[in-house]
Amino acid sequence: MGFHPATFQLTGFPGLEAVRHWISIPFCVVYITAIVGNCTVLCIIWADRRLHQPMYLLLCMLSVNDVGMSLSTLPTVLSIFCFEVTDVAFDACLAQMFFIHSFSFTESGILLAMSFDRFVAICDPLRYAAILTNPRIVRIGLALVIRSTSMLLPFPFLIKRLPICKGNVLSHAYCLHPDIMRLACANTTVNNIYGLFTILITYCLDSVFIILSYVKILRTVFNTASHEQHLTALNTCVSHICAILLFYIPIIAVSVMHRFGGNAPRLVQILMSYAYLFIPPVLNPIVYSMKTKEIRKGISRMFSRDLT
């Protein structure tokens, strides 16, 4: 067990401390939008029993995960920008690190499950109800949570074994494994290898299966359907494709920035790291509300009840 500082010091936007309270306004808007939007989707699906189907149960899982992602970053981000509290206890930082990475890994798995749902619905529609039953969807969700938590469980222990002696200032307003690891003054090969292993098993493997699913979907659609049926089938995938892009594009951009963007302005690097965690929870419910007819109807019914 190495030496650990009692606290870490988190960083907001260096050089903009004087306008920290103004910066807190867009963050508050982002959190409110993410939490209210995802909770609205959950309430609509919960209230309408006709939506208790695999596609919408998976959407519920995505919304719950997005709320969890928002709540995992909220305490430290708002503490910095609203109350100017930058210190976070060592163990609290490790806990936040665990939850942030766990929710991110789980989201990747949910997007994979949603691509499998679209694959079965389009490529084998006659067996859709038999293959994707509601109990099976619940088991898939539990398996995704178990996969993420079991793979992330070693991370806090891998950090705790390292002596942290290169200061205690982190680069973001929340705790991430690579950010904490760079402060260690010992060999971090195990951390690096295991971190790479988890990325390959989650993001890389999931994205490969998602791509293969859509290759098969496109082949099936263009080989067996008319032009109108092409549009109808593909329209059912639009929301999911948008969710995939909203999740993976920021991750790829952050990875490229960390490896090849050393000369990029510090502000750009910080904004990209925020985009990775904040864009999906905010935009996913907006995309599904716009592109899914049943969700739009549910929102209309909700507002019409409020107005009467």
Automatic annotation (TrEMBL):
GO annotation, cellular component aspect: plasma membrane
SUPFAM superfamilies for the chain: Family A G protein-coupled receptor-like
Residue ranges the record marks as coiled coil: none
Membrane topology: Multi-pass membrane protein
TM annotation in the entry: 23-47, 56-78, 98-116, 137-159, 193-215, 236-261, 267-287
Residue ranges of domain G-protein coupled receptors family 1 profile in the record: 37-288
GO molecular function: G protein-coupled receptor activity; olfactory receptor activity
PROSITE patterns, per database record: G_PROTEIN_RECEP_F1_1 (PS00237), G_PROTEIN_RECEP_F1_2 (PS50262)
Keywords: Cell membrane, G-protein coupled receptor, Membrane, Olfaction, Receptor, Sensory transduction, Transducer, Transmembrane, Transmembrane helix
Alphabetized Pfam families for the sequence: 7tm_4
Domain of life: Eukaryota
Cell compartment(s), UniProt: Cell membrane; Membrane
Alphabetical list of InterPro entries matching this protein: GPCR_Rhodpsn, GPCR_Rhodpsn_7TM, Olfact_rcpt, OR51/52/56-like
GO BP annotations listed: cellular response to lipid
Stated family: Belongs to the G-protein coupled receptor 1 family.
The protein's name: Olfactory receptor
